Each structure stands twice: as structure tokens, then as C-alpha cells.
Amino acid sequence: CMQPNACIILGQHLATHPQYYSLKAILGWIDKACNINIIEVPHASNASGAALAFMLPHQLPFSKKGSDKIVSPAQWEQPLNAYWLHDIDPLLDVNNSQAASKALSQAEFVVASTSFDCGHLREMADIILPIAPFGETSGSMINLLGQWQSYQACDKPMAENREAWDILLE
Fold it and tell me: SS3 sequence, 142-160?
């Protein structure tokens, strides 16, 4: 058996791609032919960190007893009056972007805190709060092995950008 000398890392967005199973089959053939490690970053991979920080909806003091839902695709089908999109692009990060777009267009008020200035987000949001991208913020995360990892910002946030936690505290 050959030792693998290469690795393919698949991001969580692959799971929502319309051709997911075809892509997985092709990657399986590549793996068999080349003996390559294939690692798939699971969807909602930051849920471990949220659980450790007691930030899942069913752990919050104001949550309903027995509530364990984080976000469900069906939630877009019953639009709310207001949304806060925190580091989420509704066209790129949501399974059903059409339903999300429709719900956001029907909302009375939408706030988006984001690192990216996108035309479609400008159309959907009433207020956009600029947050620092990953490299301009310090923090911690739980890696795929369940280990706590901390990291330091490479640089200070540019212009009017602020670290996301700072915006949430205001």
C-alpha cells in the first residue's frame, strides 16, 4: 500500500453543492487511483466551539425548554420582521439562497456585519457593519480533532472595520 503524499481538503460548502454526490464519486476515484487523503470539513464545524461557550440556542437563558434547533432551511419559509446576518452571505453561505433572499426582501429591517462589500448584500441590508476579516482578528477555535486553538491577528483592522466580537458587545 502506498503512503499518501497528498491531501484534498473539502470545505463545508461542498455539501450544499447541487452536484455533491457526483463530486464525491469523482474524488473517490481519485483517492483510489492516487492514494490521496481526502478530508471533509463538516458542516457547522464551529458548533463544537459554540457548545463549549454555552452559545447554542437551547443553552441560552431566554430559550424555550427543549429547543435545540440552530438554523433550519425551513426557517426561511416563514419570514421574520428582522434579521441580523453576522458574517453570513445569504447567497453563498445558505443552503437555499433563493428562500433566504425572498425572506430578507420581505423583512422590515436587515443588519449585516460582514468583511465583504457585496452588491447583493447592499441591496438586502438596511445597515452594513464592517467587521475585520479573519487575519485581522484574534480568537480561538476548536479544530477537527477537538483541540482548542488560539490565534493572533496578523494586523490591526483596516479603516472602519472592527473585530466581530466588538460589534456584538456594543
Answer: ECCCCCEEEECCCCCCCCC
Would you put residue 101 in left (φ > 0), alpha (ψ -120 to 50) or beta? Answer: alpha
DSSP designation for 3: P
Nearest residue to 141 (alpha-carbon basis) of 9, 57, 51: 51
Burial, 132: exposed, middle or buried (Cβ in 10 Å; 0-12, 13-18, 19+)? Answer: buried
Ramachandran bin of 97, using left for φ above 0, alpha for ψ from -120 to 50, beta for the remaining angles: alpha
**Local structure of 167: helix, strand or coil:** helix
Buried b / exposed e over 64-88, threshold 16 CB at 10 Å, is eeeeeeeeeeeebeebeeebebeeb
Pairing of strands 127-130, 139-142: unpaired
pLDDT tens-place string over residues 123-158 = 999 999 888 877 777 777 777 677 778 888 777 777
**pTM of structure:** 0.60
In the numeric block, the cell 457547522 is attached to: 44
Please tell me the distance from the alpha carbon of residue 147 to that of residue 34, in angstroms, as a whole number: 30
CB 87 within 8 A of CB 93: no
Q: Among residues 166, 168, 143, which one has the least CA distance to residue 153?
A: 166
